[in-house]
Amino acid sequence: MPHSLHQVDAFTGEPFTGNPAAVCLLPAPREDAWMQAVAAEMNLSETAFLLAEGDGWRLRWFTPTTEVELCGHATLASAHVLWETGALDAAYTARFHTRSGLLTARRDNGLIWLDFPALPQTPDAPPPGLAEALGAAPVYVGRNRMDLVVELADEATVRGLRPDHARLRQLPVRGVAVTARSADPAFAFVSRFFAPGSGIAEDPVTGSAHCCLGPLWGERLGLTDLTARQVSARGGTVHLRLRGDRVRLGGEAVTVLRGELA
């Protein structure tokens, strides 16, 4: 049976920028191995699989090599596809049952807003070889249950990184979020995200990392509403609203491909 498949650029309003995600609408449950094979075939940082369930959808995310616990851009892409295809009325909130609990998405003033759990970090000693792997000296290092957070001296240093991905792959974390205060007053901070251990050398725009970076910079700057820029080659903008133990991530999305998986 054919499966509806969409490719969406998330956290951007311009095609061929932001973070591309594949979204597969499932008419019935499929095996984990099949979903992993499809994600490998799509060869994007994440492929999302949606299956109608109860009052919402069961949502799972796979990189080309593994299933992940939380993904922002593919959730944003999934909500966009549901509304665009008419599977969900545009006035309704999208409800997703995931490995990270119930996540929701709604539309407001031209943006899609995701309601995600905050993933706070705490200070941590730099792992051996971190500076050598990044090619830059950390100003601050923290860790949450998934990632390392590394602050660098300035935006130019973040933009200029050419990390050693083989060394980064040896770190016992999902990924490494590298950040600095933005040189552009339109943004509170900038970041890049590397996850070679999860099959992703560099993720273009990482919503889940902002569930950590948002609270970190919000506390430092005394702000609850921020706008951030992920300065990967494709680039993307993430709007943040910090609400206690929840982080609301806002962004745009644009479909670039529609088809059927035979």
Name the quaternary structure. Answer: single chain
Using the alpha-carbon principal axes, give the shape.
globular
CATH architecture of the largest domain: Roll
User: Distance between termini?
Assistant: 7 Å
**Order of H and E elements:** EEHEEEHEEEEHEEHHEEEHEEEE
Q: Compute the gyration radius: what is it?
A: 18 Å
Number of helices: 6
Walkthrough of the structure:
By secondary structure, the protein is an alpha+beta fold. It has two domains: about 5-105 and about 250-260, Diaminopimelate Epimerase, Chain A, domain 1, CATH 3.10.310.10; about 120-245, Diaminopimelate Epimerase, Chain A, domain 1, CATH 3.10.310.10. It has six helices and 18 strands. It has an 18-stranded mixed β-sheet that branches. A hairpin with a 7-residue loop joins strand 12 and strand 13 (about 190-195). The longest helix is centred in the C-terminal third of the chain and has 15 residues, at about 205-220. It starts with a strand and ends with a strand. The mean pLDDT is about 95.
